[in-house]
Design a protein that fits this description.
The chain is an alpha/beta fold and 169 residues long. 29% of the residues lie in helices and 21% in strands. α4 packs parallel to α5.
C-alpha cells in the first residue's frame, strides 16, 4: 500500500438528489381577505365586491399569490372564488393557504416534475439536513417517484446514509 488516501464516496456510483434544489425561489405575495372585511371581521357582500373592483392588482402581477384570511372570521366559499376572478388574469399562480403552506405545495409540485427515468437502475441518496425547511411530504413524494425505477434509495449524506429501499434482483 502506497499510503494514498482514497475517497470512496466520490468513487462510488451514488447519485445525490438535494430536495433544496426544488424549493420555490419566487416571492409569494399574500392576499389577506381580512383587509377587505368590515371591521376586519365581517364580509359585507356589496362592500367586498366594490373593494375588489377597485383593487390595485399591480402587487400581484406575475407573482405567485396565496389567498388567506388571517382574521377569525367566517368567510363564505364564494368570496375565495370571487377573489380568484380578479387575481387569475394577472397572477402567475394562485393558491389557498398561508405562505408556508404554499411553499410546501410548490416544492411538491416541483419534485413531481422530476424525470424518474433519469434515475433508472441508479443508487440514489436523497440528501438530508440542509438550510431550508424541507417538509416530510417532499421526501415522501421523491420516494414515490423514484421507487419504481431505482436500484436503491438511501437517506442522508453519501458518507453516512440510512438504507430505505433496495430492489430485489
Amino acid at each position: 500500500m502506497d499510503g494514498a488516501i482514497i475517497n470512496k464516496v466520490s468513487e462510488s456510483a451514488l447519485t445525490t438528489i438535494d430536495l433544496e434544489e426544488f424549493y420555490p425561489k419566487e416571492d409569494i405575495v399574500v392576499f389577506d381577505l381580512k383587509d377587505h372585511l368590515f371591521m376586519g371581521l365581517i364580509l359585507k357582500e356589496k362592500d367586498f365586491r366594490e373593494a375588489l373592483k377597485t383593487l390595485d392588482t399591480t402587487p400581484y402581477t406575475g407573482k405567485t399569490v396565496t389567498v388567506t384570511c388571517s382574521a377569525d372570521a367566517i368567510i363564505p366559499m364564494w368570496a375565495y372564488m370571487l377573489v380568484t376572478t380578479y387575481l387569475q388574469p394577472v397572477a402567475k399562480e394562485i393558491f389557498y393557504g398561508n405562505e408556508d403552506d404554499v411553499k410546501k405545495k410548490i416544492l411538491i409540485k416541483n419534485i413531481s416534475k422530476l424525470s424518474a427515468s433519469d434515475y433508472t437502475d441508479k443508487r440514489v441518496v436523497i440528501k438530508g439536513c440542509g438550510d431550508l425547511p424541507i417538509d416530510e411530504a417532499a421526501y415522501l413524494e421523491a420516494t414515490k417517484l423514484l421507487l419504481p425505477v431505482v436500484k436503491s434509495i438511501m437517506y442522508g449524506e453519501p458518507c453516512s446514509t440510512v438504507p430505505i429501499y433496495k430492489k430485489k434482483s
